[in-house]
Structures are given as C-alpha cells and as structure tokens.
Amino acid sequence: MRLLWFCIVVLFSSLLGTWGLTPSDQLLKERVEENTNSSLLWGTYRPNLYFGTRPRTPDSLMTGLMWFDASHFQGFQRMRHACEQGDGLAGYGYQKHDGRAFAKQHLNDEPSNVEITTEFIKVPGGKEGGDWGVRIHGKPIHSHLPAMTSVLFYFGLEGEGSMDITSRMSSKGLASPVKLEGDTPDLGDFEVEVIDGLLNDHPRQGLDQDLTKTQWVGLQVPEGNVWRAKEVLHEHMMQSARKKVQPGQEDDLFSHPHMYFTLENRLVEENDEIANLYAFQKVFNGEFQFDVIYRSTASNDAKLTSETLGEWLSVKEKDFDARFDATFGLKEKGFSQEQVQFGQSLLSNLVGGLGYFHGASVVDRSHPPMQDEESFAGEPIRAQLTSPQSLFTATPSRSFFPRGFYWDEGFHQMLLGNWDNDLSLNVIKSWVNAIDENGWVAREQILGDEARSKVPAEFQTQFPHYANPPTLYLAIKQYVDRLTSKHQTGKKQMAGLPINGQQVAMDLTLDDPHMTSMYLDHLALGQDWLNSVYPHLRRNWQWFRQTQRGHQDSFGRSPANNEAYRWRGRTPDHCLTSGLDDYPRGEPPNVGELHADLMSWMAFATQLLKDIATAIDVDGSLQQDIDEYTHIKKDMLANLDALHWSDVHQAYCDQTLNDEGYGVHVCHKGYLSLLPMALGLLPAESPKLGAILDMIENDEELWSPYGLRSLSKSDPFYNTGEVYWRGPIWININYLTLQGLYNNYLRTPGPYQEQAQTIYTQLRENLINNVYSGYKNTGYVFEQYNDNTGKGQRIHPFTGWTTLILLIMAEKY
Ligand SMILES: *[C@@H]1O[C@H](CO)[C@@H](O)[C@H](O)[C@H]1NC(C)=O
C-alpha cells in the first residue's frame, strides 16, 4: 500500500516537474537558474587578491594583478598580489560593488607611492558568462617622490583549454593593444585585449627591451599551481635581472631596477607542454591607466571596448548609488554624504569578499560519525584529504581569513540578503549542500592548496564531531520574514505566477533588475527554495541534537526534561567550537558541562525549522515535524531556565561539575548571557529580561561608550589571557543584541519596554560612531574594538560581520 502511494506521488510529481510548482513556475525557475548561472560565471572575484577574477568552475581561467615600485631596488621585494596585512597599505577595499556586474576599488599603497583604482564591469550575454573589462588607474601619492610603477597582469589556465598571443610577437615588447585568444570547456572561445591609456608615460631606456611597449612572457606552470603566479613571476624576473647584470656593473641594478626586473619577452615551453600562464608588464612614469577586456565569442551583442567600458562604468555607478539609497535609505535617516559612502564601502567589501572555493579539505574521519568524543578523547589525529568540494561563500577578511566560516556566514548573509536576496540564497544553498549525510558541516572550509596556504597546519584538520553556532539559521529567518511579510498569505495558499507567468519567464533578461529578488517576488519559487533546503537543515539540527547533547542524569540536577547541550571540542581555557574561543567556561573541561549559549542557539534553530515547515506544509504532511518542534522548543525553554538561570547571579550561566561531581553554575557575565534575549527567547514581561537589560546598561559590566563588551568588566577573567572574547567589542553580537531588542522588546508593551528603547538608541549610536570614526582615521574596519579606547584592533580589513554596521545604520533587523 505504501509503495503504491509512493509510486503515485512520484508519478504525480514528475508530471508537475518539481513538486509543488506549476508548469509556468517551473519554467520561471529554470530561466532564473540559467540566468544566475550565466551571470555568476564571472560574477565573483578572488577575494584574497588585490584584484583578480576566476570563474565559478575549478578548472578554468584565473587572472590577477601585481605591481611594484620600480624606482627602488627594494620595491621589487614588495611586489603586491595577494592582500597581506603586512603589506602596510594605508587602506584598501571596494567603494562600490554590486556583486554581479560592477565594482570599483581603491588601493592606497603608501609604501609604493601609488594609489590604484580598479573598476570592473561585466556585460552578460550568451551562456558562457559574457564579457568583462577592468580599468586600472594609478597615481603617485607624493608628487615630490620618485614615481615609477611596474604593473603586471596575468592569465593562467588550469585544466583543459589553451591560450595564445595573437599580437605580433617581438623580443623588444608588444605594441598596444596586446591580444590573446583562448578557449576552455566552460568559457568557450574568448579573446582578451590589454589596452594602454592615451596619456601614459613610459621610461625610454631598457636593456635590449623597449619599455614603452608591453613586456611579456608565456610560461608553463604545473597543474594546480597558477595561484602561485607571484612566486613564479617574481622568480622569473629575478633570473632575468641576474642575466642582465654585467660583471662590475652591479650598481646599475640598484640605480635602474626598472630595466632589470622585467619579463623576458619569450615563450618558455618545454617537453611538448604549452604555456598556461601569460603575463604582461608595463612600466610607467607617474600617473597611468590601462584596460583589460575579456570578450566571450558566444556573446554576439555589442562588444565591450575601451570606449563602451568607460560609458558602462558611469552608468553602473549611478545605478549602484540609486539602488543603494533605495535599499538602505541612509539619507532619510539623516546620515551625511560621507557616511553614506562609508555604508557603501561596508556593503561593497562584504560583496567583494565573495568567492568560489574548490578543492579537498583535511578531515579526521577515523571515528564513527555519531560517536561521542569521550570514547576517543586523547587519541592521535588521523587527518585525510577529502574528495574535492566546492563552496560559494563570503569571507571574514580578504587578507587574513579568505575562506568560509560557518559561524560567520549567517551574519554575512543577513547583510547580503538585504542587498541581493537571490545571490544570498545561492550562497546559503551552497553551504546547505555542504551539510553531509550525517548532518555535519565543517566549521572552517579550507578548500584547496591556495586556501590552505593561509592556515597553519595545526588548524587545518576538521572533526566531524565538532559544531559551531548555527548562524545560517539567522539569515534564513530574515529571508522567511521578508517572504512572509511580502506575501502575507495563509499557509494553505500557494500563490503561483500570474496568468502571464509564462511570459514573465520568457521576458527575463540577463540584466533584468528583478534578478536580485525573483525568490522574493514569486512565492512559489520561495517555497520551492525552502522545500529544497529544509531536509538538509533538519538533518543538521538532528546532528546537533545527537552529537552535542549534554549528559544530565547523574549529576544531581533537577531538569524539567531531557533537553541539554554541550559543545564538544573543549580544551582548557578554550571552547573554539562555540565561536567564543577563550570566553571563560568551567575548568577543567568535563563531561558534565552544559552550555547556555548552545541551548539558546538550539531553541532558536528549533523555532526556525518550525517556521519553515509551517510555510511549506501545503498538504499537512509536515504536521508531525511541526508538533515535534513545538514540543522540543517548549522543553528547551523550560530547561534553559531550570538548568541555566542563576538566581544568585541574576544571569544565564553554564554548568560545570563541583568537586563532589555535582552540577553547579559557572557564571561569567557577557555575550553568553545575552543570547537568550538577543535570540528573542524571553517573553517581554520576563524579569530575566529586566536583569539582562540591567547588566547591559551597567558601566561596570557590559556597557562601554563604543559598544557592548564581550565579558563583564567585573568578571575576574576580564582582559586576561589572550583578551580575545574577554572584553573587546565584537560587532556580530552587538548586532544580534540590537536585533533582539528591535524585533521583540522595543515595540512590545511590557515593564521593560522603555529601558529597551533607551538601550537600543544609545547602543546603536555608539556603535555607528565608533566604527565610522575608526574607518575615517585608518581606512579600515576591524575584527574587534577596544572597550577602553574604542580603537579597532587585530585583523584588518575585517569586512565580514563588522559590515553589519550598515544594517544597524539602516535599522534592518
Ligand atoms: C546551473 O549550474 C549548476 C551548477 O553548475 C548546474 O547543476 C545546473 O544544471 C545549471 N542550471 C542551468 C539551468 O543551467
């Protein structure tokens, strides 16, 4: 009988295409996906580079920009390629970036005395990603200092395909425009031009080379090594300089380094291999400009040229400004033009940090996936490379953390989701697909050698019993809120496309401005998306419930039910898996611990799964799940109070074991104690809410003039040890706090409403003022802020969750 039912359902769904979609919805879905595929083929950048592009596929064309100060011998040693904090740039980042077709970036390279602007345009067309162009402009910072810049742009090919220079080759250099042609399986045929600006001034003398022309080289680098282009080209130029130095004339190398550190103007191909890395070098006196234009042979429409590039750039910049104003409304809120630009840079750097990552990661899978850590604690690590995976993700920092982090990503997607709903759903979906068959997802996604080169070996291995705060649920909740507030329909109603839906789908063009919100505008598509992620999220939730469960029977506790949680992966003084690293916990780590923050995340996640199941349950088949969530969440809230609330401390606290082996509270007021409020788990009339608000407002606890500190000033661990999550201000939890106040307590009548309003207003102002003034002074936003001075500290630029300042300015929660 069951089987019969199953067959009928399968037959029925195959008739309908995807379950729940009408044929015209289905057509629209395919068109949207086709468009997204094409527009994103070249849509993301290599966030770890100052400028570089790569398509979404792993084996394909990679490009990148390098430069060095050619007026000094030392300049060559400081050649720029990947964003490095140690480069000491006086600020860099995107001023504008729409994530799909337009980006403008500023690189303030004080040590090399050059200010570089990169402006990028993509013109969609055809199925192979269309055309793109970049304009690179440089200007000396100090006009009284020598200003000579050597700039390189390269094209490297991984996997199948080929490239050839089609300009007339010469050992003196190539005349502008330099032309290159090639093909790859995913990009099809393409051509590239590198075009000099009209006003460029080049040094004239060269050693057997004409430096007014473009110097070049074609090299053969081993598979998987194109990302090392800087090492390869640096070494090549070093060798070239050695060959050119005449005995006894070594001084000339120091006085004229620009003539020595050049590409050799030849193809270096050996053993029947063909060159897969082409680099072009230009040496400039003073200010300069050149364009790099990539054309896909498949897009036959108007071809991108230097002239049209300039026109597109000014149109796109105006579009960006208008869309930014319409989305975030900062002017209406009274922000100045300068602050609006600051807001634009926050958004643009988050967007510019998006990237496709590919490759194997390192995982220790030597234990059954659901086995408890206690049974193998202390065993040696058995790390293995996994099969290659792909991830489309934002990154916390282009210089220091250019890879995906589960803990950070939900915060990133709250901002991106407000700007480009559908792009953000793509990223979330990519993460959801990374959830394995047991429900686990690695908290740090270090995919491939390039990503791994930025991570010390001891931090590379991921463990399938380690969790991380499930922040993706925060971003998905915002999406569900947007979708429901837009459609306000009852749960049994499936609003399909209007009658002319078929026409809507057919009319959809690649640069349709609605391409950013198709999954918001069309409820059926939205429900279809939720349907597709729901089973993965449920598996992830079940994995949490099984693997991070707290033991509670035997420790003399009086729980209301069985719900209790504990982060695995504790070490003395640390709980890295909680995301709060060195935040004080019970010591020594033990199996009897219970963690209040994890309990809060779990209750929040349970509510979200209930909301999703409710939104997609058109035929009542998810009622059982919904009932399960209702009852488990109730239990979680009961135990949050029964196990974690301390009357003595008037705070939510972890539990640890005392000397007799009994469960006792271990209370360190700080971000951990905020979560039940920040995640909206407390009723507006709860006295516990009042206690948390008092803790927030107290100068001796969390309140500072720059934002809420991570650990209470009165805590014995305040500002001790590494001082990471023991005092400094982090923007993610400050945002969550404002979000919790705004969505749940500010506008809901209750005894604490006024207090919530006062805190919200003052905290919002403090955060905006401090991060903004830090940016004005240094050119950067930071990983965290000092609670005594307000100064930004540690990693910069940190344009991951610190960019939430923009949502705080716009009051989007
Ligand atoms: C879009 O790209 C994905 C991933 O490469 C692929 O699986 C899917 O079939 C593509 N969809 C369309 C409509 O081309």
Automatic annotation (TrEMBL):
It is an enzyme of class 3 (hydrolase). It comes from the Eukaryota. Residues 1-20 form the signal peptide. It holds the Pfam family Glyco_hydro_63. This is Mannosyl-oligosaccharide glucosidase. Keywords: Endoplasmic reticulum, Glycoprotein, Glycosidase, Hydrolase, Membrane, Signal, Signal-anchor, Transmembrane, Transmembrane helix. Cleaves the distal alpha 1,2-linked glucose residue from the Glc(3)Man(9)GlcNAc(2) oligosaccharide precursor. It is a single-pass type II membrane protein. InterPro entries: 6-hairpin_glycosidase_sf, 6hp_glycosidase-like_sf, Glyco_hydro_63_C, Glyco_hydro_63N, Glyco_hydro_63N_sf, Glycoside_hydrolase_63. Residues 39-254 form the Glycosyl hydrolase family 63 N-terminal domain. One of its GO terms (molecular function) is Glc3Man9GlcNAc2 oligosaccharide glucosidase activity. Its EC number is 3.2.1.106.
